[in-house]
Design a protein that fits this description.
The protein has 296 residues and is of the alpha/beta class. It has three domains: 55 residues, Nucleic acid-binding proteins (OB fold (Dihydrolipoamide Acetyltransferase, E2P)), CATH 2.40.50; 155 residues, Rossmann fold (3-Layer(aba) Sandwich), CATH 3.40.50; 59 residues, Probable gtpase engc, domain 3 (Ribonucleotide Reductase Protein R1, domain 1, Orthogonal Bundle). The strands form three sheets. The protein has a six-stranded mixed sheet with strand order 10-9-8-11-13-12, sandwiched between helices. Strand 2 and strand 3 form a beta hairpin. The protein starts with 5 loop residues before the first strand and ends with a helix. Guanosine-5'-diphosphate binds next to helix 4.
Amino acid sequence: MSAPPSGTGIVLAAYGRGALVLAGGETMHCALAGRSLRVVCGDEVEWRRDAGGMPTVQALASRRNGLERVDSRGRAEPVAANLDRLAIVVAPRPAPDWFVVDRYWAAALQAGIDAMLIVNKSDLDGAPIAEEVANYRRLGLTIAAVGAHSGAGMEAMRARLATGATLLVGQSGVGKSTLVNALVPAAEAQTAQLTRDREGRHTTTTARRYRLGADAAIIDAPGVRDFAPPARIARAAERGYVEIHALARGCRFGDCRHLREPGCAVRAAVEAGAISPRRYESYRRLLRLYERFATR
Ligand SMILES: Nc1nc2c(ncn2[C@@H]2O[C@H](COP(=O)(O)OP(=O)(O)O)[C@@H](O)[C@H]2O)c(=O)[nH]1
Ligand SMILES: [Mg+2]
Ligand SMILES: [Zn+2]
């Protein structure tokens, strides 16, 4: 029987001018039709195989949601699409950059995607990161403490991730790939298989999606040094910080930016110790970034 000439599929990994697509239980390398077609991990696509040729992605279905980042010039760039959960991974080592954690959480809040914090490497001393983790918990962020090496907390985390698509993000070295390999035994082999492909050189710099049980998927993203979400919504910086957003209605001015405006409820809360000065500084940095992009 010959292979079907066309169908729909889901992008497992996007690289350069091609994509690895899951279609009908099979993975295949596809080219992209047209110069302007850009796909990311998690995209739903239509593909077609012309006689004797490589399958080609013809079209992209509209995205339910997506995680985007801004580049240094302020342009939005999709990272992964159609997500149910953003899992931000930290560990005692490498020492977390909490500003990056804040911005991932802000990205999830702005895009309407559930977020959680995975604290990996439970075999290491967690004291240096305990205070920040406790603050996130207090703010309502779901926390899962795990040890990818020891297996601690892994069954509870697997249960949490049992439905929907989860994107793992975080600094390089926190253990994202180790977690994926622990959750998806075949992941390592699949990564190796992809790496051996002629276009495999791109795969270490791109997100890769794996099936996780019957109803779920997990996406391993490359580590980042920095991250910021684009300002797609009104008051984007404020919306990224739950404790600031919650207090903003108490400010004297409706358009308060919570910097030096009189009667600012947010600044009052920072001064009273109800908002962490580090989180407030994080908000100010994101606001400054957005204002810089807006004045260009
Ligand atoms: N001590 C400890 N090290 C871990 C644990 N999980 C992962 N690592 C190590 O952390 C390093 C980075 O892991 P990796 O999965 O490549 O991180 P990624 O860059 O986030 O994908 C590797 O040396 C792993 O063996 C853990 O639970 N405990
Ligand atoms: Mg990795
Ligand atoms: Zn204010």
